[in-house]
Amino acid sequence: MPATAATNTFRAGPDEDGHFGSFGGRYVAETLMPLILDVEAAWSQARSDPDFWSELRSYHVQYIGRPSPLYLASRLTEHFGGARLYFKRDELNHTGAHKINNVMGQALLARRMGKTRIIAETGAGQHGVATATACALFDMECEVFMGAEDVERQRPNVDRMRLLGAKVHPVTSGSATLKDAMNEALRYWVSTAETHFYIIGTVAGPHPYPQMVRDFQSVIGEETREQMLRAEGRLPDTLVACIGGGSNAMGLFYPFLDEPEITIYGVEAAGHGIDTDAHAASIAGGRPGVLHGNRTYLLQDDDGQITEAHSISAGLDYPGIGPEHSWLHETGRVQYVSATDTAALEAFALCSRLEGIIPALEPSHALAFLATIIGDLPKDHLVVMNMCGRGDKDLEAVLPRLDAMGLL
Amino acid sequence: MSDRLSRMFARCAAENRAALGIFITASDPDVDTSQAILDHLPGAGADMIEFGMPFSDPMADGPAIQASSQRALRAGGSLARTVGMVRRFRDRDGTTPVVLMGYYNPIYSYGVARFLDEAAVAGVDGLIVVDLPPEEDEELCLPATRAGLPFVRLAAPTTRDSRLPAVLRNASGFIYHVSITGITGTRAVPTDLVRDAVARLKAHTDLPVGVGFGIRTPEQAAAVARVADAAIVGSAVVTAIAESLDADGRAGERTVPAVLELVGSLAGGVRDARR
Question: A104-114 pLDDT, tens per residue?
Fold first, then answer.
C-alpha cells in the first residue's frame, strides 16, 4: 500500500480532490460526475481492504503470471559496453503487456460495485485485449473503443478482442487514434453511466483513475525493488520506461520516487522529431491544459485546441500524459526525454537480434533512449528498463519499415 | 451583463411563456455566415443565444455538434474570434442575452482573467462550461461570478438530490437541466420526465430552469416550454446549417434562411405552448 501521509515525499499525491500539485482534478460533465464519485468511494473502500488486495494478488500469481522476471540483458549490456541493463519482463504477463495488472484490479472493483458491463478505450490494443480477457473471465459484457487507424495497424489485437467476446467500436472522429477513442468511450459512458464501469487504461482521466491505475501498476516497481536487492544486493541506479499516458512508467517509478539517488527517465515518443509537428511528446512539446478529466501537459495550438499526436507506436500516440507525470516533471524528480520512430525501430530490431526478445514498439522507445546514454555509464551502474509489452502485435507495421531500413 | 439574462426571463414570465434558447457554434460554417445567423436570431424568435466556443474534443457532444465544432475550427474559429463576434452583435442588439458555451481548455489557454475581462466588455451575459463541475469551482466559476458573469450550472438526471445543493451553491443566471443521460442531440427529450425534473430543481433554487439536450421539433419545444423557463435547442439548429451546405461544405444562400426558419417554427412552438 502506498504511503500517503509523510512530508518531503514524492509519494503523497494526489490530494483528496485528485491533484498532484496543480495537475489532475476532475474535469468532467455533470452527468458523469456522480458516477466518478461512486467509483472514488468504491475505490477508497477497496484500497484499504486487505481482502481486495489478497484477491488481486492471487490473480497476479495464478492468472497473470507474476512476478515477472527481472532479467539481466547480458548481450545488450555487452553490446553497449556500459551499465548493466536489466529488463523488467512485463511483456511475459498473460496478454503480453503490463496492461493486465491494472485491468484485473479495476475489473475486481467493478464487480464489487455490482457492474457487469465494461467500457474501455485502447490505442495499441493491449489494454483492449486485457480488458476483454478480464471480462471473459468474470463474465462481463465488454465494449472497446479503438481509433479506426489503430484498428488497421493493430489488427491482431482486434482479432483477439473479438475472439474473447468483446465488441470493438472503430472510432472515426478526429485523428481516429487513442485520443478520439477516449473521447468516444467517455461519450458512451455518459450515456450508460448508471450501468457501465469504464476501465481506463492509463494513469489519466478524472480522479481517482490516475491514482488507482498507478496503484495497480506499482506491483511492477515493488517486484523490481525486491528482485534487484536479491540479484545485486542493492537498489538500481537508473530507471527507464516509455510513456504514452504513462501507466507502465508510473508503475515502475512510484515505489522508487523517494530514493533520491536513483535517476529516473520517462521516454516520450518523438515521432518524426520533437522539432516537427509530428510527435507525441506532450512534456517536451506541449503545455498544461485540461482534457479527458484532468489538467496535464497537452499538445495543443495557441487557441487551446488539442493537436494530433504522431507516433509509429499506437500505444504512445496520445497528445497528453498522466497528471502525476506532469507534476514529477515540474518538480524535477523525473527527467522526460524522447526517442524518434526511427530510433525505436532500430532498437526493436537490435533487441530482437541480441536478446531473442521481440519488444513492443512502446518499450522500443525506452531502449532507443537508453542506447544514447548507457554506453557512457560505469559498468557497475544498474539500469532497469520496463519491457512493458511484446512486439507480436507490431510485426505487420514494423516489418516493411525494417526491410526498408536494411534491418531485416 | 447578468441584467440582460434576468430581464429576459422576467419579460418572458410577464408574457406567461418560456424563453427559447438557441445554440449555434461560433464561426460555423464560416465567420461571416455565423455572424449573420447570430445577428438575425433575435428577429427570428430566439430569446437567448448559447454561443458555442468551438473545441477540438467536445466530449459531451453528439455527432451534430462535433461536426459543427470541426467546421468552425476549419473556418478559423477561435476563442478570440468568438468574443469578437459577440462584440459585433452587441453593436446592433443590446437586449438579447448571449451565453458562451463550451469546454474549459481554450479558456484556460487564453488566460482566465483576460478572458473574463474581454467577455464582459464584449457584452457576454454568462458562461456554460461543460467540463467544470462544482468540484472545480475555483478555476472559473468563482472568478467569473466575481467579474459579474453568471456561471450557468448543468444539472443532469444522474445528479442525485444529495448532490443538488453542491451543484446549485455557486450557480447563477439560470440552471441548465440536461434532459437526457447522454450527449447532445442523440436522444429525444423525455417530455414526461421533464416536469418532475424541473420541479425538483425549483424546490432547491429560485433561479430560472432551462432544459436542453434532445429538443428538435416545435412540438418538443412546446412540451418543454409548458413546464420550464426556457427550452434550448442546439443539435437541430447546427444540423440545419450542415444540411444547407454545398458539396464542398460552403454556406449557400439557403444557409441563413434555413436556420432562421427553423428558429421561427421553434419560437412558434414555445410561444403557443401555454395558450
Answer: 999 999 999 99
Residues 6+ apart with CB under 8 A from A237: A83, A261, A262, A263, A377, A381, A382, A383
Does A300 contact chain B (CB < 8 Å)?
Answer: yes
Please identify, in words, the CATH class of the domain defined by A67-96+218-404.
alpha beta
Would you say the CATH fold of A67-96+218-404 matches that of A27-61+98-213?
A: yes
Domains of chain B: residue spans and CATH = 2-272 (3.20.20.70)
Domain ranges for chain A:
27-61+98-213, 67-96+218-404
ipTM: 0.96
CB-nearest to A304 from B108, B133, B160 is B108
Per the listing, cell 432544459 goes with B211
Residue A154: the pLDDT is: 85
Quick check: B209 pLDDT over 90? yes
**From CA B243, how far away is CA B237, in angstroms rounded?**
10
Q: What is the spatial distance between Cα A404 and Cα A402, in angstroms, rounded to a whole number?
A: 5
DSSP for B59-78 reads TT--HHHHHHHHHHHHTT--
pLDDT in tens, B169-206: 999 999 999 999 889 888 888 988 999 999 999 999 99
**pLDDT classification of A7: cutoffs 50, 70, 90:** low
Phi-psi region of A176 (alpha: psi -120 to 50; beta: other; left: phi over 0): left
CB contact under 8 A, A28 and B105: no
Q: How far is CA A224 from the centre of its chain?
A: 17
Q: Give the tens place of pLDDT for each residue, B244-260.
A: 999 999 999 999 999 99
Any idea what DSSP says for residue A66? P
- In Å, how far from its chain's centre is CA A179? 14
Sign of CA dihedral A267, A272, A276, A280: negative
Q: Does B170 touch chain A (CB under 8 A)?
A: no
Fold designation for A27-61+98-213:
Rossmann fold (3.40.50)
Task: Say whether B105 and A30 touch across the interface (CB within 8 A).
Answer: no
